[in-house]
Amino acid sequence: MRANEAAFGRLALLPRVLRGGGKLETGVTLLGSRAAMPVLVAPTAFHRLAHPEGERATARAAAAAETIMMVSMAATVAVEDVAAAAPGADLWFQLYVQPDAAFTETLVRRAEAAGCKALVVTVDSPALGLRDRDRRNGFHDLPDGLRCENLRDGDRVRPIVMSPDLTWEHVDALREMTALPIVCKGVTHPADAVLALDHGVSALLVSNHGGRQLDTVPAAVDLLPDVVAAVGGAVPVLLDGGVRRGTDVLKAMALGAAAVAVGRPVVWGLAVDGERGVARVLELLRAEVENALVLCGLTSVRDLEPGMVRRSW
Ligand SMILES: Cc1cc2nc3c(=O)[nH]c(=O)nc-3n(C[C@H](O)[C@H](O)[C@H](O)COP(=O)(O)O)c2cc1C
Description:
By secondary structure, this protein is an alpha/beta fold. It has ten helices and 14 strands.
């Protein structure tokens, strides 16, 4: 987790000067979804732990910022209710493939019916990582009244199963099950990036899960160039992990990311002030991206290129 932020600190931006102005362009189109800013909302679980409105508030703020929200399978508001709370929002549904194939299909159908435009399949979680802070905090289970609403199955709520038995065949099965584009989240090794392409994914999200799965995985932004090279432009490559400032967004995009996503900053905004808090976090990032672009001598995020990033130490 710390490495993700520190790695951005070790990268420096090298601006160009006297290149004229023009209308700023920060928008990106990803898998048919349009985002006005290249900062997406990463999937994070249990938003009602942070604010009573939970994922409804996050979705409204994402819609107001005209960006894409990846709704966690482990949301505390059902995906149908998240969609209803923010009409017009671009939602992608994050899925941990469940060993019960029929139940996985139920989740996919619900995401489709709710209008989600992509499936984000998280592949870095064959088991839950060891979370020292959760252990110290004594966090075992959701408090009374909060549930993973996407996992309701008749009268019961299923547990989230992190299965070590998953293989690329499960990605193939999803590919056959749905016409939705599949984003493979949590690829870190370039060899896996190539395999993901072989298995027909539509985008990759380079991520070490914000440091919550295997400890000591390299920083996401340090992994990015090798994955981008392996993918060779075949599909968009996204990044999450440690993005805190607009300059971080520019650094990742200069190194080849099509866009980035933020996890913790959204939850912090939600905890501070619900929908307004998330909206504020996204506004700050957008203003910082615009300011950094101008100061780099650019008008569009598309014009960022690797030569604008240097190692500062
Ligand atoms: C509280 C919390 C819950 C998370 N829940 C999920 C989840 O349900 N599914 C998932 O794929 N990733 C989950 N993640 C990982 C995020 O999607 C993302 O990879 C990570 O937060 C990015 O790092 P950042 O927090 O530094 O922005 C979670 C992260 C946090 C901090």
